[in-house]
Structure formats: C-alpha cells, structure tokens
Amino acid sequence: MTLDGKRILLIVSGGIAAYKCLEAIRLLRRRGVAVRCILTRGGAQFVTPLSLAALSENRVHEDLFSLTDEHEMGHIQLSRAADLVVVAPASADILAKMASGLASGLATTVLLATDKPVMAAPAMNVRMWEHPSTQANIKTLSARGVRFIGPVEGDMACGEFGMGRLVEPEALVSAIEDFFQRQGRLQGRAALVTSGPTHEAIDPVRYIANRSSGKQGHAIAQALADMGAQTTLVSGPTHQPDPAGVSVVHVQSAREMLAACEDALPVDVAVAAAAVSDWRLSEPAASKIKKDAGKPRLELIENPDILASLGEAGNRRPKLVVGFAAETENVIDNGAAKRQRKGCDWIIANDVSPDSGTFGGEVNTVHLITTDGVDSWPTLSKVQVARRLAVRIANALDPTQDPTPGIGA
Ligand code: CTP
Predict the structure, then answer these.
(1) Could you tell me if the CB of 276 is within 6 A of ligand 1?
(2) Cut 0.70: pTM above it
C-alpha cells in the first residue's frame, strides 16, 4: 500500500512517550506522507517544536491565538486539510477533553472542528488507563468513531508495569497504512442503507413508531462511505447527526422509505437496518382525533416490505442485499428463516430483547447468516460492527482483493 500523497495532522500531547512520535514522523515521511504537527503545551515538555518541524519538514502549530498561524492557515482549515488526524501520544487529559467536547487549546479546538477521521494512540500510567473515567471516555469516543490503536502492556516510565504504553512507531504507521488501505476498497461502488424507525401517522399529531435509535444504520452508512462507497442513507426520524460524506434522505413513513430506496437504485449493496413499522393505519385521520368522539378504532394494514422488494428488484437488484433480523428469541433460527423469506443474501441477526441493551444502546451482539452458515461476532460497539460489516461487504464485492470467501460467506 502506498501512502504517497496522504496528509496527516499529528497531534502530540503530553507524555514521556512523545519521543516515539519523532520516529513515526520519520517513517511516515519516508512513505511520502505529508505530516503537519500540533504540539500541546504538555507535549512541548517532552519534545521540542524544532525537532517536530525538522522531521515533518513543516512548521509546527502550538498556539490557538497565533496571528501568524491564523493568517497562514486558520485552525478550522488546519482541521480539515488532512486525510486523517492522529493523536499520538493521546494523554488521559486530551482524551477527557475530546470526550467532553472542550476546546481549550489549539489541539482540542481542531479536534472539535474536524470532519476528518480521527485515530488516537493512548499512552498513560496503568492506573490512569484503568480508571473508570478514562475507560468511559474511550467508550464515548469509540462510539463516535474515533479509532484507537493500543495502548500496549509493558514497563512504564513511572516504574510500574501494565497497560498504558504507547504502541511502537512501526505499529502506529502500520495502523495508519491499514486505515488508508481499507478506505479506498469501496471506491466506485454505490451503497444504500436504511436506518431508524418509521413513523406511521394516526392523525396529524400522533403516530405509531418503535424504539430504534438509528445508531447501527447510521454507523453502517458512515463505515461504507469511509471506505469510499458513494452512499445513500434513507433514514426515518432519529436524533443521529447525518454521517459525513453520505447523501441522506429523511423520510417519515415506510412508504416514503420504499420510494426513496427505489430512487437510489441501482446500487452494488443495500443494507436494510431500519426498524420499519410492519403496519400503518388504513386511513389516518385528517384532523386530530378528539377524546369526546369515544374510543377510536384503529384499523391497520400491512406496510410494504422494503428489504423483500430490494431482494426482488429484478435487474435492478443490488449485487448484495443485507437485512437485519431483530429477534427476541431463537435469534439464529428466526434470522435464517428471515433470510430465505426475504430473498436477501445475508442476514445480521441480533437479540433486541430488553435485557440485551441493543435498542438505543451503544453495543450489538450479532450473527452474520449467509448461505454458508453462521458467523457469530463478539459483542462490539455499533461502530465496530459497522466497520466489520463494511470490510465483509468489500470482500464480497471484490473477492480478488481478499482471500476470505465472497457473497456466499
Ligand atoms: N424490513 C423492511 N420493511 C419492512 C419490515 C422489515 O425493509 N416493512 C426489513 C428490516 O429493515 C430488516 C428486516 O426487514 O432488515 C427484518 O426486520 P424485522 O423487523 O426483524 O422483521 P419483520 O419482517 O418485521 O418480521 P417479524 O417482525 O415478524 O419478525
């Protein structure tokens, strides 16, 4: 994989491990990567701006209120003019600031303003690493899409032993390489994702809905777009922000969702992650139903099945159609039956019973069901499930790029 021409914004925060970033810069430059550095005040206690500037062959940014810097390249521009932002070493302090959205210095301001992928390589004392605050911050940031590399176990500068050492420069560079390698794998492909619940009107103010948060579907759209797919996300009403680089169509009802999906065809892959309402009112009331009219009788009729219609779309059928099976019992058997019934290639079956914490939660435990059988994944964050799925999709669409089996797998 060539990294030639890639642009990395490297944020060096405080920690004895900061010296390792010098070697990382040297390795990146050798691979043709343009590196620009931001050095925090803590970081400057361990490495000098001069050494970063000499190795990166670029000026080093330290001050949020530097007139010269703002004149040459404003901090917003700095946050956007990179393909990847890498925080290495990432101290407990900067991770806490990132998790709470503080913008107290140049580095944190840039991290808050960036619309680019962020990778962080934590380094700190083992007890700081294990502290529930740090662990909660890591969880929050992972759920928001920050990629973590390390830390690793070993001797610490403070004389203790444990988890908290910064990864070695070679490992950091290979994680960066891996990131870019995946990124282009769906270039030239088109993807369609449905997400969130649907709202089916009862009257102008009331509707039938469900507890879907849209987190999983939105994360899948983001992961596919991150790998280069031209991605359309058809979303029911959710509180999720529109994923970056994705074309989003906002809909309310199942019928609107179906129409928007049909408009998005042809695509190479469709992932139906929406929790579509199976039913709608046969005749929603045109004005608000009043109590004094007595107990209303709501007659329901079945909604179109979007996944099944994508599976049957004839010559417009996506090469790969992936559905979800939200189950509360017999997860795998019900999922496998759903795969057959809905004419899709893969089903991702997950347990959505209240104890599982799936609906609205950050994690998901899924089973990928294909013609070849069942692949049960460990409990992962929804972002990790999305990234893993995106890699599987890329492998299936282009098996020559990967030794793992294609659509059947
Ligand atoms: N789905 C869809 N359109 C519908 C209903 C479901 O596209 N009208 C899709 C979902 O996005 C999901 C899959 O079908 O990918 C399975 O959804 P699920 O709610 O688990 O299954 P249902 O078909 O509703 O079956 P049941 O509720 O009986 O389990």
Answers:
(1) yes
(2) yes
